[in-house]
Design goal:
This protein is α/β, with parallel strands linked by helices and 612 residues long. It contains 24 helices and 23 strands. The chain folds into three domains: 2-209, 3-Layer(aba) Sandwich (Rossmann fold); 217-375, Rossmann fold (3-Layer(aba) Sandwich), CATH 3.40.50.1220; 384-490 and 525-568, Thiamin diphosphate (ThDP)-binding fold, Pyr/PP domains (Rossmann fold). InterPro entries: DHS-like_NAD/FAD-binding_dom, Myo_inos_IolD, THDP-binding, Thiamin_PyroP_enz_cen_dom, Thiamin_PyroP_enz_TPP-bd_dom, TPP-bd_CS, TPP_enz, TPP_enzyme_TPP-bd.
Length: 612
């Protein structure tokens, strides 16, 4: 079959499917793209030729920013439990390098996305082409090489013959639950348009089985032995529980053996908040209940977690515990010198079933009691009369029943992790692997595309909004309805607090005019974010107190259009942090307050463990 490389690629992608537990779905649901000279005549022509509307074999979606396209693909793929994703096509040069942040986010969160940046001519006949980086040391270096470290598979298609094997490798990595992440096929612009005689079988329907590996018997026996000897076990549920759709198994396991369950950011919602042994969020942004249990546990059962520093409180949290690590990736299962159980989370929980073993009744009772106290703490935090951030989140939490909350960076992820009452695994979508400002709206768009039946509540800080608000226009274009809660506190509340706590005096964290002193200490910036959102095509409502926020959210929910609710919050603390985070403080300073902070830092440092 004689087709261009781009036509063959599009035809191939439309024939790829995944299968898990007997259900089949498209692997590549569509192609997000921004065209330039590096892809318009290749991929652009190929998409147009097959009819690029939503009923096409590979539907095309115009986005506003290439980084945002990857966020949208990630939001989509995560919501679909990594079984379906999007491709992203870009031009060469800046269009391609705009992908880098999105690719890093995808790879760190282990979410499949297919990136198709254009690349400079393979033939080099016209070099240097517009936007080409000329590396005097080597002509085969292009700006796309910046995607190598953030991609789980990277290839450059310099000749048509290379395409089939590259495509198969790319699909294998996308659908491998242990390996997956950003997959990049760099496509030189001349090669995209080049014709070749392809074998028919390249375009046959292919179904990629998404594996649920079972534990190795010997490893399972060791894990069961460890479990049976434990009296004070504590589960740390990570994103892997959700990816594997293991939530119900986990809830049943915890209830049957009376094991408290704590959750990471990616794992939050793995068990419903009112499960009898749900001890809530763990780590630096965790609940007092979970963190107290973590300090007293004799065995930590990590399931599908990467053990980020937020989870382990920078390795200070699990004072005397051994680790049993259930993970599909050996890389993660090996962390903290744990007993490795390399397997799919659901398979592992079934296999691990320890019969009549239970946690010590006193331990289970303590977990219940601590959790009850923590629920009362949430009630208090949600219950104020002023529109502080916790009060605002309580109101959104109530409005979002059955909906999804999306967030990524700033002070909200911490408060959400502590406070949000998640009732199902899909309800809580906080991107905290890369915690990327700008993920919120673009990622939320992907969530809504994947779950159109659910109300999607995007919580976005003013800082994140100013960094990447433009995908509101894409949501409007697609008739995709989002409720965007734009939380305005005139700058970086999160980094402001952190800055103060590490002796950096809140430098550069407030959105103020440069004042007469030459410092950024003048009046608040006269930026009208509500008007900005309206200009992008959204309906806009404003809320100044708890009552008007409730009314605005009800209106936004009732509307069929993307609605931005602009909220100004007042400073007001949520529950205190009960676990540390290692952010190194200046070792020397003329300022006595910095020296005091440094002394406290060194005290915490002594609690840090290597887990050997
Ligand atoms: C792309 C990116 N740049 C910088 C950071 C570091 N950072 C984390 S939170 C934050 C401020 C976020 O401000 P805003 O969205 O207004 O949220 P707030 O802290 O006010 O709640 C910054 C700069 C980041 N996470 N992502
Ligand atoms: Mg802010």
């Amino acid at each position: 079959m004689r087709l261009t490389v781009a036509q063959a690629l599009v035809r191939f992608l439309a024939q790829q499917w995944t299968e898990r537990d007997g259900a089949e779905q498209r692997l590549i649901a569509g192609c997000l793209g921004i065209f330039g000279h590096g892809n318009v005549a290749g991929i652009g022509q190929a998409l147009a030729e097959q009819g690029a509307g939503t009923h096409a074999a590979l539907p095309y979606y115009l986005a506003r920013n290439e980084q945002a396209m990857v966020h949208t693909a990630v939001g989509y793929a995560r919501t679909r439990d990594r079984l379906t994703t999007f491709a992203c096509t870009t031009s060469i040069g800046p269009g391609a390098t705009n992908l880098v942040t999105g690719a890093a986010l995808a790879t760190i969160n282990r979410i499949p996305v297919l990136l198709l940046p254009g690349d400079v001519f393979a033939t080099r006949v016209a070099s240097p082409v517009l936007q080409e980086l000329e590396d005097p040391r080597s002509y085969d270096v292009t700006v796309n090489d910046t995607l190598r470290p953030v991609s789980r598979f990277f290839d450059r298609i310099n000749r048509p013959e290379q395409l089939p094997s590259a495509l198969l490798a790319a699909m294998r990595v996308l659908t491998d639950p242990a390996e997956t992440g950003a997959v990049t096929l760099a496509l030189p612009q001349d090669v995209q348009a080049e014709a070749y005689d392809w074998p028919e079988e390249l375009f046959r329907r292919r179904v990629w089985h998404v594996a649920r590996p079972v534990p190795e018997p010997a490893a399972l026996a060791r894990a069961q032995d460890l479990l049976r000897r434990s009296r004070r076990p504590l589960i740390v549920a990570g994103g892997g529980v959700k990816h594997s759709q293991a939530s119900q198994r986990l809830a049943a396991f915890a209830a049957r053996h009376r094991v408290p369950v704590t959750e990471t950011q990616a794992g939050k919602g793995a068990v419903p908040y009112d499960h009898p042994y749900a001890a809530g969020a763990i780590g630096h942004t965790g609940s007092a209940a979970a963190n107290t249990l973590a300090r007293e546990a004799d065995l930590v059962i990590g399931i599908g977690t990467r053990y980020s520093d937020f989870t382990t409180a920078s390795r200070t949290l699990f004072a005397g515990a051994a680790f049993l690590n259930i993970n599909i990736a050996a890389f993660d299962a090996a962390k903290h010198s744990g007993q490795m159980l390399v397997a799919d989370a659901r398979q592992a929980l079934d296999a691990l079933e320890p019969g009549d073993w239970n946690a010590d009744p006193a331990w289970s009772a303590r977990a219940t009691e601590l959790t009850r106290d923590w629920q009362a703490e949430i009630e208090r935090a949600y219950g104020g009369t002023e529109l502080t951030q916790p009060v605002m989140l309580g109101i959104v939490n109530q409005a979002a029943e059955g909906g999804v909350v999306v967030n990524a960076a700033g002070s909200m992820p911490g408060d959400l992790h502590k406070l949000w009452r998640a009732t199902d695994p899909g309800q809580y979508h906080v991107e905290y692997g890369y915690s990327c400002m700008g993920y919120e709206i673009a990622g939320g768009l992907g969530v809504k595309l994947a779950a159109p039946e659910r109300e999607v509540f995007v919580l976005v800080g003013d800082g994140s909004y100013l960094m990447m608000a433009q995908e509101i226009a894409t949501a409007v274009q697609e008739g995709v309805k989002l409720v965007v809660v734009l939380v305005d506190n005139h700058g970086f509340a999160s980094i402001g607090n952190l800055s103060e706590s590490v002796g950096a005096q809140r430098l550069g964290t407030s959105y103020r005019m440069r004042g007469p002193s030459g410092e950024l200490d003048g009046a608040f910036l006269p930026v009208d974010l509500a008007a900005n959102a309206a200009s992008l095509g959204a309906d806009v409502l404003t809320a100044a107190d708890p009552g008007t926020l409730r009314t605005a959210l009800a209106k936004a929910v009732a509307s069929a259009r993307t609605t931005v609710v602009h909220v100004e919050t007042v400073p007001g603390p949520g529950p205190e942090t009960t676990a540390w985070w290692d952010v190194p403080v200046a070792e020397v300073s003329d300022l006595p307050e910095v020296r005091a902070v440094r002394r406290r830092y060194e005290d915490h440092k002594r609690d840090q463990r290597p887990y050997l």
